[in-house]
Amino acid sequence: TPPLPATHSLTSVVLPKPAGAETRVSLRPAARPSFSRAIRRGRRTTLGRGGSDITATAIGAALDAELVEIYTDVDGVCTADPRLVKGAIPLPSVDYETMLALAYNGSKVLHPRAVEFAYKYRIPVEIKSSFTFAAGTRLSGGELLGKGKIMEEKKISAISHKQDLVAVTIAGGQKAAELLANLAIEVFKYRISDAKITLFIEDKYRSEIEYRLQIDQIQPLQVEQGIGFVILVGIGINLDMRIMARLLQLTADQQIRSITHSDKTIELEMPTAMVTEWVQRLHRELIEGNQ
After folding, report:
1. Which of 53, 155, 161 has the alpha carbon at shortest distance from 110?
2. Kind and range of the H or E element at 242?
3. Continuous H helices in the chain
4. How far apart are the first and last CA of the chain?
5. Torsion of Cα atoms, 100 then 103 then 109 then 110, to 10°
6. Pairing of strands 189-193, 196-202
7. What is the spatial distance between Cα 37 and Cα 116, in angstroms, rounded to a whole number?
8. For 241-246, what is the mean pLDDT?
9. Phi/psi of residue 76, each to 5°?
10. Residue 12: beta bridge partners?
């Protein structure tokens, strides 16, 4: 079979052995449509970006599959986007939680909802290149990575990034709550402080958010363009003060707007023009330097 174009993906699902069977049952290959779903009254709509990934893991979960293989235009998950970082290191295995953090913070290797299906139903997923079919990245629970690896010293597993964001700041209150309840666009991040809400959205959604604000008669307090994020991902890194100390050293006197964290990330907000440089620099200092 010739390699697929970069705009397509291919998936396969390995079914479990029936109880008492000594060998895997041989099944005829079957093609299954993806990227669409049924909504109210049987009407059909698309799943949107990552729809094929979501379909594959959902079918794998429904069939209690041994493995879901996703073939795409990359060799698997790396420690950073290999298009930006020449020294990006392929990861042979990634646990569900780390992959979920990467997916929700800018990595486009696998859609977040696909990771959620795999995580919830504990379905191993393997991401491979449709050009080489070589072994890629195995996504599974920590127990399959080895107990020693789970208890290793806290370290940064990978770096993700997001560029070309718009920050829309509005006053809190009932109108803001109604806006958020009916918002139909993806919000990358939000921040709430001093009775103000800041929504970080992709620039392509700017016209939609402006339309919603107009319809709901909400005057934004501030709208900023050209915002980016560089996000360090790793279990427990947010509480490791040595990592924070090193970050403070590296970012001193730089145009870093803020440094925040979640339970698995440390997030640096900056002008979008600086993102590529800082992905490369942080990868060199914090990942390549610790190999």
Report:
1. 53
2. helix 241-251
3. 51-62, 96-104, 112-121, 147-150, 174-181, 206-215, 241-251, 275-282
4. 37
5. 60
6. antiparallel
7. 17
8. 94
9. 135, -160
10. 69
What tens digit of pLDDT does each residue of 148-190 get?
Answer: 454 455 789 999 999 999 999 999 999 999 999 999 899 999 9
DSSP string, 58-115: HHHHHTT-SEEEEEESSSS-BSS-TTT-TTPPB-SEEEHHHHHHHHHTT--SS-HHHH
Q: Which amino acid is at 237?
A: I
Dihedral class, residue 42 (left if φ above 0, else alpha if ψ from -120 to 50, else beta): left
Task: Tell me the average pLDDT across 253-275.
Answer: 94
Is residue 230 within 8 A of residue 268, CB to CB? The reply is yes
CB 36 within 8 A of CB 26: no
- At residue 204 the predicted structure's pLDDT band, cuts being 50, 70 and 90, is very high
Query: Which H or E run includes 175?
Result: helix 174-181
Residue 67 has which token pair? 């493995």
Closest CA to 168 of 153, 152, 188, 154: 188
Output the pTM of the full model: 0.81
**Token pair of 92, please?**
């042979």
User: Residue 58's pLDDT is what?
Assistant: 84
What 8-state DSSP symbol labels residue 205? G
183 three-class SS: coil
Q: Angle formed by the axes of helices 112-121 and 51-62, to 10°?
A: 10
